[in-house]
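User: Please predict the structure of the protein below. I'd like the answer in structure-token form so I can feed it into my own downstream comparison script.

Assistant: Understood. Taking the following sequence of 691 residues as input:
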Amino acid sequence: MRLLFEIGMEELPARFLVQTLKEMKENLEGKLADKRIKFEEIKTFGTPRRLIVLVEGLSETQEDLDILNMGPAKQVAFGENGEISRAGLGFAKSQGVEATDLELIETPKGEYIAVRKFLKGEETKALLSDLLKELVLEINFPKSMKWGEKKLRFARPIQWFLALVDSEVVNFEIEGIKSGKASRGHRFFGSNFEINSIDEYFEKIKENNVIIDVEERKSLIKKLIEEKCQESNEKVLIDEELLKEVANLVEYPYPIVGSFNSDFLEVPQDVLIISMQVHQRYFPILDLDGKLLPKFVVIRNGIEDSDYVRKGNEKVLSARLADARFFYHEDLKKPLVENVEKLKQVVFQKDLGTIYNKIERAQKVAEYLVDEIGMNTRKDTVLRTLLLSKADLVSNMIGEKEFTKLQGFMGADYALKSGESELVAKGIEEHYYPRYQGDILPKGIEGIVTGICDRLDTLCGCFGVGIIPSGSKDPFALRRAALGIVNIILDSELNISIKSLVEKSLETLEESGVLKRPKAEVVAEVMEFFKQRALNVFTEMGYSKDIVSAVVDKSYDNLVDTLLRIKAVDEFTKMDSFNNLVSLMKRVGNISKGFEGIIINPNLLKEEIEKDLFKKSQEVSKDVEIKLAEKDYIGYLNVILSTEDIINRYFETIMVMDKDEEIKNNRLSQLNYIATIFNKIVNLTLIEEKK
């Protein structure tokens, strides 16, 4: 059997569509499984006016069910004389059977009474009415509404239900809206229609100019733009996120080319592009060199061109661009640095003060960081970048909330036009990178240092006043801030201690009197927070989780060095000798686990093998320090492995847990000492042996 279910409604917000279809599919899968109804596949389709699920290979009946309900133990269910007890009768009554229907079941714990039941599967068609009704009532949206006298909450008013199993209607009703076999085509270029089969639905919906497949609409938009809107000397800028949104705004896409006054091109093209993409959902048109042309593409919800639609969109865009040009010229009337004073009135967070206070704290950390990485020659440009980094937030362009996506970019443009150096201007723009996962990273030292110090102040400040992410709550995007710092440090190969940066940042918070929690406690929490981000970043690089965990378990303070260690261990795991190394470590570590002593008394080493191992461990200790100093981590692992033969001979000869307490403790100290040498860069016990 096949099931087709369509919910028709007023136009749904574009951002709701894909997630709602995903949740509907998952919910329906769960409901069919709960009802023991098998199916082959569930497909979903959707447009702004309809949510559709298609179930293929639906079984005609539920699966039969054999149930074995266990009761009390035999000795509880029957008395000493063998007659059934009150407990036994109570169980039989609860199961709706007579005492004679009970049987004894042998289990590992003894004999228990039980009842067997057989449930014959019902016809699927008889269950679908309630199932589909529940499916509708359980749909959740970020925002819902009620309409008229109805109590049902939904994203938009429901207009119709189409529900068909093969050629039969699945009858149900929700607040006066009855299911049937009728649907509606495109609002302007289609008609209402009825169907008698599921195949007929797919034919008629197309005839009525509705493309129900989201991916098909996206592909068609791209194809039509290429065919109708793109000249040989130009290129339409198709942003993937915008494409997804636009595809969910229409039932049939038709691209129309509009134009605007070329005078607007005096404004930075990023401003114009953002205005078109974010505010109007238009696709900008560029020349082959990437320069914006005074043209755009708007996607109409229709099947043909329209001068009326073109002119209307051109008029709206001109008003938008006029605002942008006005804001831009107003901002250029004064140098960017004059905006800094206004930041003293902008509160960042009530306990952490203003954005200006934040900049002052970040500058102190920046001075420390610049010294640590040996970039003193750029200290002035770094500090100037920090001073101006947030100045565009109070500009007309950003402050009016029209073009918030351009923060950083506008600061850089205004800085250059105010006479600031290119290094400072670039740093202002780059300090916001990365803005999202996979985004570009800052390359100039100004953007790198400013980006780290700004994020660090946010992170340490929030932890310092008790604002800590939990679950999905992260109002200050602290996870993203920590991830940004980790990625910037690794990409820039900064040999810097994260802990020292955290301590310096908390020091500035303490000096300014805003730190509300014990400093040591906050350091520990922030470092653990960084640890989780580092684990994620290294794993996403493609290294196996056990290797990353084993290395990070020892140290992650210097991320660049941590990555070198991960690479070395990863390389070593591919060698034939790797399993020998892991086995060796586990053998040494397990027997001395929990023992803390490492001081060895040579006079208590009675056997020759003990003395040989003592001598070898001292040699290895020196060799290890040399390898670690040279950052030759493969060499370090090979030095450890060189002890394999002597350690194996030691265990074959020596009984570590000697009856003499002094000898036993000395032997445990010897093994513990070796374990500390083995554990310098990686906790090998956390790595799985390779098969």
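That's the full token string. The two ends are 46 Å apart (CA to CA).
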